[in-house]
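Q: Can someone sanity-check these two? First one:
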Amino acid sequence: LRMWSGRFPADSGALPALILKGLGSGLLVALIEETFFRGAMQGALQRQGATRWALFVVPLLYSGVHFLGRAASVPHDEVNAFSGFITWQGFFSLFTEPLRILDAFVALYFVGLLLALVRRRWSDLAACIGLHAGFVAVIAVFRRISAPAPDNSWSFLVGSFDGLLGTWIAVVTALVCLAIWRLHGLRSPGMEPSWRSP
């Protein structure tokens, strides 16, 4: 699905440096996103007993923010009462082509669900940060050292959005989510164990 690119580090010390840089950026992204999504949002919903919202809606928001673009600019001499809507169009421009991002959106949804299940099952934000940092680090390194192989007969498993996210990640992550659900359910210390809670 991927082939080595011309950007693969030739120097023996460059690859470890690239991996460390990927881990650093992964940790930074994970600290911000996990504190907000799994810490603040999921934590608040779970405390209110809204388990289904915490597990299934927060990952939807988590997936969605990855496809927000830049605000469209409006020249100052053209600003009017509707300029705000033009600015917002830039944020949501990728959502105007839903089929282009669908497989990547679903893959990120299941990644978010996996992180939500880990948070719910083990009540541990550190585990979510570690997993998330690992995901981001791998993506950062692979984007640098490899490129999509569009002629591969299995290339449909990788989406066109970024050449990494796609059906294969969605399927594998969904299977891991199912395994956690079947093996551990939602039982965790101090929390209601039922999937049927509001």
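And here is the second, same format, sequence then tokens:
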Amino acid sequence: MTLWLYLYFPTLQLDAMYLHKEKPALPLSIIDENKNEIVQLNSSARTEGLQVGMGLGTASSLCSRLHVKSYDQTLEKRTLTRIAKWLYSVTADIALCPPKGLLLRVNNMLTLHQNLDCYWQTLSQHLNRLPFNYCYATGYSPHMAKILAKQQINHITDDKAWLLKQIKKQPLSSSDLATNTRMRLQKVGVTHFSHLLALPLSSLAKRFDVEVVNYVAQLKGNTQHQVHFYIPPESFEQYLELYYEVSSSNRLEKPILKLYRLLERYLTLKDKLATEIELLLQQRDAEELTLCISAIQGEYKADKWLQLTKLSLESSILSAPVIGLTVKTKRTISKYAQGTDLFYGPQGKYTSKELIAMLIAKLGQHSVKGINLEEDYRPEIANQLCSPLQKQLTTKSTDINIKQTLRPSILLPSPLPLREQVTLLPYPERIVTGWWDEYQVARDYFIARTTQGKWLWLYKDKNKRWFVHGVFS
């Protein structure tokens, strides 16, 4: 028979929220608006006498300081997916059981571990790195493992007799049977699983519908339970809900760092580097703000990403308070794809790629460019903007070598008419080219000095008009 492990997270939404640990914990509850009752509580709320299942009116009368958040099943399913993706690196065959459970098939993993205890030790150590409270139990059917986990048995075993004994102790209210079906069973004295399992399946089939018969058969492991296993995507995406609204970008650093630490763990396990990530700021009553942050050299450390994010936030304006954060990886590369020159040695605090990444984060992707040379005599075409750190053109010895000619360090975007007195230096340079395209030029270039001592790069066109094309620094 197949051994299953069920992980139950009773306070999943509460644990997934970002709470300010520096402040004293206030009583906080998660309310199901459909039932108008409490479904999750923190320790401070329990100290005030509040309990799960209590109505909102009663809870408010007992605790005037109570903070309330609406229950969000979509958020819990998203968090479950995050946990499953985290566990996938140490165990396979994980099934999502929303809103608060994960089902794991154990048998296939025992071939990689000495025994069940070693498997659970590896799994629990990995799971404990996440800030979620959980209960657990094993069973020889998904129903059995789920019932024992929700009853907080918190025991790992493959002893069939012990597991069956524990199941018989549990009340029928902990099953997944419909409420009407449970009420019909209770009317004939079936209140615990010991009563239900003692009845022959033929008798159950005569008095109850097929749902009860199938449930008992699946509980015993006699029939197959259909399970859809989770397959994680090859990317990182994490959402963090804030307990309070944030109107200042400076106060976002700590929750952002929490997400980046999860990103660092993910990239470390995958042996990858992220070259571009996307930070989404969910704003109350406003469109979300998207920040694209790049690291050309590839990065995985949380503090490095936070440093780049701070520079991006300085030039961003929040139009409304932030209530949630999302981090996504846009591009990743292998950790060993980046090569470095062993003999180049350290050149400063930052490498060229790190410096460019900081400039892009500060000024924006479109504001940081490199300069490349083209094989053309025309100055406007010979100097072209390109992406940072793009390899420059190497000209052949038989072609024009622009590097050997004297050129100004500042080339004007477009030539300006000469309107001041200058002194020309000898040895002009004539450029007559471009006859093969629509941009033909015929110019005589000179180096000139103004009366104020400024050095200019001038040219005279075929109509004998003078223009300033560049300035020597």
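A (reply): Looked at the second one. The longest helix spans residues 253-270. The chain is about 30% helix and 25% strand.
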